[in-house]
């Protein structure tokens, strides 16, 4: 006989064990070894045979030996089959051989896989029918109606059937024809699992509950209350649906709690009696929401009581006050603006106003065209950050060249939409939100000067404000005579003539070039500027600033000395100008007195070696800005010139050129100077031309000078030699004449030795 593997059962079921016989002929003598707790033959492989394998015994036959093993497949497994292998090696004339034995196994018993499902519902009254659908874990056979058990008198089963060959089954259930009133009870249907088998022959075990249903004349109850699933808007119906366990009568509004429903208080739109379209099992009510409710998401409708509600058999309904809709949102208020305002009371030429519109809620589809304002245009409509689109701003630009009119705000509501979907229409005016508009250009028509009187003539259909307390300060005007500033000592308004007369510190002579400029000293409209006369209690608006414009010079060629402008220290700068010099800040941060530009506690108008204007202070015979004791240096002249037309590349001269003449202390050939200017100018040196025409910074280390900060001002320290290359007259004659600029140059060249100049420019 040849080697072989034999099984007495190669199709195993639950609870079965197969005897495996391995026959080995006398040409091979395998070794029976102990592997763990099991005995195994060399070459015998049960690794692909799931389950339990036990060695039983062996028997010697005439041609070889039988080895017996018991194989029990893995329980509760649908596909528990496998393969047994035996490998016999070659030896001598015996070739190698491989034995294979396959088998199948299904050890899983059929079970009830689904819970009950009754149709139409699981509550049965007398005579009701229902269909029960159930399923098993796999197709089964042998199931008959007798395997299903129902308690006596609790119903009748019929028409057991499968719809797919044994997995899914259906059976009909009919309740008894009569039942006691109000005696509901739960009834169970069981199935005998022993009576069924699967395709492999595995039988079920025990019994299982197939279905549970409620049987009896059960009183009706409320099953659900369902409200809107979307936001309720203005002019839309709210429908509430009530579903009972069975058809009922006697259901009225009195049974319904509408306290939290936002129902309209108006008769036309208030809730009407509930109606049923299916014989009484389902009821609905309909109403409109109150028009005063906005964005309320906590609305509910519930059952107040079930008094008077009965089923068709007369059973009283079971109270259930917890039956309620889910919260639903009502937003029945149209979006509308609550305010619309300007940020200004009046507008003049070149000005704009910010319009702010505030709504009762978040809105969309709001456009610039919806903001209606006469006499101008609206632009740049933007929602305010963080306002959730409730607050919007826009820019209103008035029409040019309008004379004294006003406008109010109206909001076009057509198309305006809130987040819920409510829309509005019409126009909403805001009569209290008005703005005065006067964009007629309030400007100078003509300017003339005669001696110390410079007259500005304004053109406007209204008069100037005659109140001198409402006038502009003197320093709001800049008058240049041949490029040198001539300070204004007084400003007078002639309202009727619409003129302003400036009194100059120094008289103008015929033939001199004169210009005037005006800078409104504050923003907006106030009382400290040239302005129109007001109307009633409303003040006028400020005249516009204007850049330097030429003045017609009507002055005679010769003007007698004017003793009304004293110059106490004879430095050519009148006292009234020197008294305007800003003082230095004190160590405690307080301001020093005006007229003391170098902070030595002596008025500059009383010191011959100190000359000041509002723009700068010059100190001759200086050591760090203070007079050197016993220095007799005197400033005899100080004037200002316009910047040169071809000044060096990169040079900025914010106060033009400064020209001065100084008489030296006897025996001195070199004089030291300090020049104070406003820090805000950014000046970083005092620049002059040498005899070769090259601009150099005398306030730099290579030239013995420096730049310092003192009392909130910039101080430029420098030296000039009498008759040296920076003395303009070039003569050692006991006085120094200089022309230079407190200027700003790029840092790359500040303080450095000059380079060779080409045409007066730096490179």
From TrEMBL:
Entry keyword Signal: yes
Ranges where the record places region Disordered: 551-611
UniProt entry keywords in alphabetical sequence: Signal
Metal-binding as UniProt keyword: no
Domain of life: Bacteria
Domain Bacterial Ig-like: start-end pairs: 106-214, 220-322, 339-428
PANTHER family the UniProt entry points to: BACTERIAL IG-LIKE DOMAIN-CONTAINING PROTEIN, PTHR34677
Name used for this protein in its record: Outer membrane protein
Organism for this UniProt entry: Verminephrobacter eiseniae (strain EF01-2)
Species lineage: Bacteria, Pseudomonadati, Pseudomonadota, Betaproteobacteria, Burkholderiales
